[in-house]
Amino acid sequence: MQDIPRNELLDKLDAGWQVRRKDWHEVELADKNDDISIKMKELLANDWQGTPPLFQRFTNCHCVFAFTELHKNEAKMVRRKIYEDSSGYEIDDEIILSYEDLAANDWEVWA
Asked: Where are the domains of the chain?
């Protein structure tokens, strides 16, 4: 999480960041796709923090390269291109790969 000055909060939300007040629980993140309900006193508070959206670093990679990037903390998530939603594998996930996954060269690395 990075601190967000109050005057940059709306710009960060618009740019795709997930944001929260520092006293919110970790799971209480808001982004522009949420039906956000923010009270005026929260909006005026200057204790916001957030995380930027993921961006694609590499595509068309082999499995070993993708997971090496994940293990080195150069990536936040890896996934195969055929995954239609935004899900992928993160460093803490228990990962079970099929032979097809291991042989594929359509892995993506997201940071």
From this structure: 2-51, 56-110
